[in-house]
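Reproducibility note. Readers wishing to regenerate the assembly model reported in the main text can use the exact inputs given here. Chain order matters: entities are listed in the order in which they were concatenated for prediction.
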Amino acid sequence: MDINRILRETFVVEAEHREELGSTNDRAADRAKQGASRLPLLVIADRQTAGRGRGGNRWWTGSDSLAFSLLLESAAVEGKKDTPRFTLRRQSNSRPNILVGLGAGVAVVESLKPLLGNEEIGILWPNDVMAAGRKLAGILVEVLTDCRTVIGIGINTNNSMSDVPAELLWIATTLLELTGKRQDHTEILIALLNRMEEQITILKRAPAELAARADALCLQRDKPIALQQGRKTIAGLCRGIAPDGALLLETPNGLRSFYSGTIIR
Ligand code: BTN
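Running the prediction on these inputs yields the following structure tokens for the assembly.
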């Protein structure tokens, strides 16, 4: 990993690369608590022993996969200056949080697409990145109590499917499996971080434009899906992603917008 190139060629101003961490999101949050002031800060780990996914799930960090988190100033992801300050909490499902996750999803798709030839790649709302029908990358956005934002991204890059845990065998894929080639992590990070900077700029200027980009990449459109919200399951036909980042579902009660929940089918 060429950290100096990443610092030179992206908007990241400080980077920490470790062989092993529990979770890069936790490390980024710790750095925020310790008063990290040179932001955006990038935290990368070759191995995570306690990688976390959304909804309290674990994230499998396969050997030779890419796991990193970006710690951003709240201002970097807030809307226009004259709009009221968003009140965000860690793990909250508030709207700006959804848009940050969608922006990260767009950045991941746009940066990996050139590596994949004709293979289909897109987003499952809120922010799973799928290629050839399987999960290629996951995104975990967490807003800290001081409103700084951690965007954690795990990408199955050079990890081999032969190491994949049995329960993920039919769910996950890797760039190595799809392309037959090992990919350069520095190149991927530079492309992705530059796309991320673009998305953050769009988010500040025109959030609906970011949502429209995510909508164009949404793989659930016009498919029957079910959303779990606590004990409730809402089934409907997906009508894509709304300008504020909500999932649009056509239900027996009409077209409804959802801001949180887990897609279960
Ligand atoms: C999901 O699909 O549920 C989200 C997975 C996010 C995984 C990444 S890996 C880097 C960062 N550190 C973590 O502990 N999680 C995120």
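We highlight two features of this model. The domain at 3-216 is CATH 3.30.930.10 (BirA Bifunctional Protein; domain 2). Residues 134 and 171 are 5 Å apart (CA to CA).
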